[in-house]
């Protein structure tokens, strides 16, 4: 039996995908965990930021710093477009609107009329050129065995985890500040905060912007080693982010990071175990059926988390968003 999938699963700790989802889930925690906004449109922010970066870097040839600013600006503009008409809605209506907005973005960039700019269903390749041009790591391979990386992959990993560390420190300091205490108060009782003379609507908008900017930075890390594909930022991505955030702890800073690591390790292990069992005829499924079975297990895990530990691994029960 081939157990290399265990090593590959451990390698998910360093994977750009893990880094990206940790950043995006941290942004979701700012919106949902700390402020109480039921934002089901985080995948939309990732798509908007990704296209802002990829179009300017690949199509227009902008330098790296300008493309990153374009991604951030695109996320901020999307936050205003989404937030101005919706942030006064009740949480369940807000959830419907945000998930619809994310789907509108995904289908818009796939429109044939926009293919010359967005790449249509094929997406955009070549986002790594501007990123690789500033790579100071000498050409070569680093690591051992399956966990060997070339200089470009290693650079993405280093930059990605440094970005996660900076973002986590920023959010941690932010939540310890008076601003953080206000948004936590909005989560608990926004009428009480409004009675104290605070502009609840504007604080919600700020939280949505911060969460969106973190999602935009996340997608840059995600697409640099691969490419930008519109179907990667559908509702499945949003549900993954919620699973990651709830797993680690929605009201914590380190929770989304830990949740992303555990989530991708477990998902990779599950895929490997299912493949091993199917190959040895110990499980009556085909290779095509492995994907759906894996997602069924993820769904069951999410249900169990919400029922038995709504506060997540690192969270406190009194701050849990789901009641018993």
Describe the SSE topology.
Elements: H1 4-10, H2 16-34, H3 42-59, H4 64-86, H5 91-109, H6 115-118, H7 128-132, E1 141-144, E2 147-150, H8 151-176, H9 178-195, H10 200-223, H11 235-248, H12 255-279, H13 287-308
Antiparallel strand pairs: 1-2
Helix pairs in contact: 1-12, 2-8, 2-10, 2-11, 2-12, 3-4, 3-5, 3-10, 4-10, 8-9, 8-10, 9-10, 11-12, 12-13
In short:
Helices cover 69% and strands 2% of the residues. The chain has 13 helices and two strands; from the N terminus they run H-H-H-H-H-H-H-E-E-H-H-H-H-H-H.
Report on this model:
With 324 residues, the chain is mainly α. It has one domain: Orthogonal Bundle (ABC transporter involved in vitamin B12 uptake, BtuC), CATH 1.10.3470. Helices cover 69% and strands 2% of the residues. The protein has 13 helices and two strands; from the N terminus they run αααααααββαααααα. The protein has helices at 4-10, 16-34, 42-59, 64-86, 91-109, 115-118, 128-132, 151-176, 178-195, 200-223, 235-248, 255-279, 287-308, and strands at 141-144, 147-150. The chain has a two-stranded antiparallel sheet. Helix 12 (255-279) runs antiparallel to helix 13.
Mean pLDDT reading = 89
Give the distance, in angstroms, between the N- and C-terminal Cα atoms: 43 Å
Question: Which structural class best describes the helix and strand composition?
Answer: mainly alpha
**What is the radius of gyration computed over CA atoms, rounded to a whole number of angstroms?**
20 Å
What is the CATH architecture term? Orthogonal Bundle
Work out the count of structural domains.
Answer: 1
- Beta strand %: under 5%
* Tally of helical runs: 13
